[in-house]
Structures are given as structure tokens and as C-alpha cells.
Amino acid sequence: MISKHYFIYTFGCAMNEYDTERIAASLEAKGYIPSDNVEDSDFIVLNTCSVREKPQAKILSYLGQIKILKEKRPDMIVGVSGCVAQQEGDKFLKNNKVVNFVMGTDAVSHIDNVIDRALNGERFADTQVDSNDFSISSFQRKEKIAANVTIMKGCNNFCSYCIVPYVRGREVSRTPEEILNEIKSLIDKGVKEVCLLGQNVNSYGRNLSTNVDFPDLLSMVNKLEGLERIRFVTSHPKDFSDKMIYAMAENEKVCRYLHLPLQSGSDKILKVMNRKYTYADYVEKINKAREVMPDIEFSSDFIIGFPNETDEDFNDTLKAVKEIGYDRIFAFNYSKRPGTKAYNMEDNVPANIKSERLNTLFALQDSLYDEKLPALQGVQTDVLITDINDDKEFPYYGLNMYNRKVAFSSDKNLQCGDTAKVLIKNAKRNCMYGVEV
Ligand code: SAH
Ligand code: SF4
Ligand code: F3S
Q1: Does some domain include residue 131?
Q2: 395 lies in which domain range?
Q3: Residues with Cβ within 6 A of ligand 1?
Q4: What CATH number does residue 382 fall under?
Q5: For 181-202, how does the pLDDT look when each residue is reduced to its tens digit (9 = 90+)?
Q6: Same domain, 95 and 159
Q7: 204 & 347 share domain
Q8: 102 and 32, same structural domain?
Q9: Ligand 2: distance of its center to the CA of 311 in Å?
């Protein structure tokens, strides 16, 4: 039998990366082999993101390239999954002849059936939503040191700019038992670090009959033997509680790093974004977390050029970035999304102003981080090795507890999964370099 190959493009967030692993596991169980290149693949899936217009437009350009390949190999099966698939459904199938099937965000739960239908030659869109429970049965995963584990799906927050609640549905949590079992089986396969995923992990457990909330879940995961580190994304500031702060502080495996997206430093903009906190509320939480964990590092997302954002509003964002002193920021130009509340507002900040503001923000963050770099040198830090490459000088690579990248050398023969104490000799913006001590 000639072996068949598959290729999956993954766009968007870690939830999509996790779903890609589930799709891959199902294809492999059916005998497909992963391929490094799309040209020689028989089964192709584009796992899509629609959070901004640009990544969504990219999908069509990829489909254009696949169309040329498919003209030569008409048996090729092409599927579109993820958030664009959920949003466009049938329409996407009708408008893109190259596509064999469209599977929405909940279709991953019955992926075997989706693949069988496609293999049987059916052309279809499956965008049905399962709203009440959320269960993920175990699936075969690639060997890794750090793995993602989805703990909940959906979002109830309806930030006015955001498409996620429309493409991922309402919040539903997996049971703690299921999550713990998945992590235990990952530990058995050598995983040392997990990242717990949800659009707003702070509201984990609200739909469950048990009384377990996210801080409780962190404590349960912390007890698992063999696991060394716990990360999580994303935390909504309005739900980030004192209980969360103490759970982070008391559970020693939880990394001292918190991604807490502020989005804007202007209260006027935060209100129209429907974020449900003010800048002062946010700073109070940051200060409290720093009081309890003086070494904690923060990162944030920002949207630049939201409708009616003035120079003054933008200056409030710059001021916030200066005041808080983030370790890292992610910032995006505002992009109007169909179906959201802000869609009806005029997208009235000109593109050139958005880009100018974005550049100003990144330049500020770079200069603030550069000021921090000298203090990071001469310090020892624990690094969990996730990669070993053939770099002569710094072959070992991993992250420390603060989510900073570290490349280093050692006289020993270290393995992926080992934790090394590294003395930082040279701290650069994107990576710190050191030697094992
Ligand atoms: N649930 C997470 C984030 C999900 S989307 C949270 O609440 O933080 C990731 C990031 O994309 C958001 O934090 C936001 O900064 C950005 N984003 C979402 N919608 C956007 C839009 N319409 N235009 C530009 N950026 C957007
Ligand atoms: Fe989108 Fe807001 Fe939900 Fe995050 S919390 S996914 S930004 S609606
Ligand atoms: Fe994108 Fe969907 Fe994630 S819109 S950011 S892939 S939830």
C-alpha cells in the first residue's frame, strides 16, 4: 500500500494548536503520515483564525495555492476548520470549489466521523454547536516537554471588538477529572510543563456541578507528581481575583508570569470595548499581585486605533505601559469584525495613524525593556530544556519561570526535559544567553 500523507496549517491561538493535535491524531489513527510539505500531501487541513481581517484574508491566498496543486492531483482532500470555518460555514464551501469540507470549532469533538465523511467523497459543512458539555476524549499526542491542555471553550464576555464569542460559542468547562487524567497521561509520556488554555481561564468551572474554580484547579494540577511547571492563558482582568493571586503564589509549579490583557489605557475606550474594568482597577490587581509575588512578570495585549481613539487616549496607553513595566506586549491594529458590536461604529482612525501609534508603542516597550536588560545579567535562573540544536555556542534552549527565552552552554550532556541552573551572561531583547553552573 502506498502511504498517504497529511499536512495541517495552523493559524491563530493555542486553542487552534491544540485542535490541530486532535485532528492530526485522528488522521494518524487512520494511517496517514505527517508531511513537511503540502505538495506531496493527500489530506490538507487549514485550521483558521478570524480574530482580525488579515489572518482571515491569508486563508484565501493559501487556498489559491492549494487549488493549483489540486489541479494536478484531483484526489487531494482539502478541509477548512477553526474559526473562519465556524463563521462562514456553508457559504465558504459554496464559494471555494477547492474545499471538500468545512468543519466548525465543535466538529473537532467528532473528528473521526468528519474525516470518514470526507474520505467517502462527501462535500459538506459541519458547523453544529454543542453547547452544554465539553468533553475531550483522550488522543494520541506527539512526544513533547511542554504541552497545551484546553480546560474550557468559548467566551461569555462579548468585548465589543471581538469575534471569539461568535465563533467559539458560550463558555463551557471540562471536568477537573478529565483535565487531570489528560495531564497525568502527558506526564507518563515525559511532559514536564503544561499550559492550561481558555479564553478566560478565571471563569473556569462556572458551568460545572462541582465547586471547583480556577485557583482550585491550579492547586489540583500542582499536586501531580512528575509535573514541573504550570502556565495558563488567558486571564481577563475583571475576573482576576485575590484567590487567584494566592493560588499563583502558593503553588510552586505555577510560573511567575501573568498575561493580563489591558487592551487600552484609556477608561473611555475600555468602556466602549465593554471590558468592565477601569485602568485604576487593573493597576490595583497588578499591585496586589506584586505585593504577594515581588518577582512576578506581566505581559499584555493592546488594540490600537479602536473607533474614536484620540491622541489623548493613545497617550493613556503609553502611560500605562510605562507605569506597569511589562516584560512583553502584544499589540494589534484594530480590525473591524462582522457581527460584533463595534462593527456598527465607524472605523475612523486612519490606517496610517494606527500604524504610527503601533510603532510608537513598540518603540516605547523596546526602550523600557532595554533598560531592564542589565539587571537580568549576572543572575541565575532555572531553565527547562525544550530544545537542543546544533548551535556550537549555545546548544541548549528553554524558558525560565518568567517565560523568558534562554539559550545556554554546558559541559554536561543534558537532555530535553532536564532543568538546568543557568548564569545569564548576556541578556538581549529576544533571548538571554548564559552558561550552566
Ligand atoms: N481571550 C483573550 C484574547 C483573545 S483574542 C482575552 O480576552 O484577552 C487575542 C487578542 O486579539 C486580544 O487580546 C486582542 O488584543 C486582539 N483582538 C481581538 N479582536 C481584535 C480586533 N477586532 N482587532 C484587533 N485586535 C483584536
Ligand atoms: Fe474576546 Fe473579550 Fe472573550 Fe477575550 S474576553 S475572547 S477579547 S470577547
Ligand atoms: Fe483566532 Fe479563533 Fe483563537 S478567532 S485567536 S483561532 S479562538
Answers
A1: no
A2: 377-436
A3: 51-52, 161-162, 164, 199-200, 234, 236, 261, 263, 301, 303, 332, 334-335, 337
A4: 2.40.50.140
A5: 999 999 999 999 999 999 999 9
A6: no
A7: yes
A8: yes
A9: 25
Q: How far is the CA of 165 from the centre of ligand 2 (A)?
A: 7
One domain, residues 112 and 162 = no
Q: Decide whether any atom of ligand 2 lies within 6 Å of the 236 Cβ.
A: yes
Q: Which ligand is nearest to the CA of 203?
A: 2
Tens digit of each residue's pLDDT (9 = 90 or more) over 105-129: 999 999 999 999 999 999 999 999 9
Q: Domain for residue 246, yes or no?
A: yes
In SS3 terms, the chain reads as CCCCEEEEEECCCHHHHHHHHHHHHHHHHCCCEECCCHHHCCEEEEEECCCCHHHHHHHHHHHHHHHHHHHHCCCCEEEEEHHHHHHHHHHHHHHCCCCCEEECCCHHHHHHHHHHHHHCCCCEEECCCCCCCCCCCCCCCCCCCEEEEECEECCCCCCCCCCHHHHHCCCEECCHHHHHHHHHHHHHCCCCEEEEECCCHHHCCCCCCCCCCHHHHHHHHHCCCCCCEEEEECCCHHHCCHHHHHHHHHCCCECCEEECCCECCCHHHHHHCCCCCCHHHHHHHHHHHHHHCCCCEEEEEEEECCCCCCHHHHHHHHHHHHHHCCCEEEEEECCCCCCCHHHHCCCCCCHHHHHHHHHHHHHHHHHHHHHHHHHHCCCEEEEEEEEECCCCCCCEEEECCCCCEEEEECCCCCCCCCEEEEEEEEECCCCEEEEEC
Number of domains in the chain: 3
Same domain, 369 and 381: no
Query: Is the Cβ atom of 159 under 6 angstroms away from ligand 2?
Result: yes
- The per-residue pLDDT for range 357-407, each reduced to its tens digit, is 999 999 999 999 999 999 999 999 999 999 999 988 999 999 999 999 999
The ligand placed nearest to the CA atom of residue 153 is 3
> Is the CB of 200 inside a 6 Å radius of any atom of ligand 2?
yes
Instruction: Looking at the structure, tell me whether residues 340 and 285 fall in a common domain.
Output: yes
261 alpha carbon, closest ligand: 1
CATH code of the domain covering residue 184 = 3.80.30.20
* Residue at 138 is within a domain: no
Q: From the alpha carbon of 50, which atom of ligand 3 is closest? A: 4
pLDDT digits (tens, 9 = 90+) for 226-248: 999 999 999 999 999 999 999 99
Whether 212 and 229 share a structural domain? yes
Please say which residue of 336, 354, 374 terminates a domain: 374
Same domain as 391, residue 290: no
Domain boundary among 374, 405, 427: 374
**Closest residue by CA, ligand 1 atom 12:** 301
> Is residue 332 in a domain?
yes
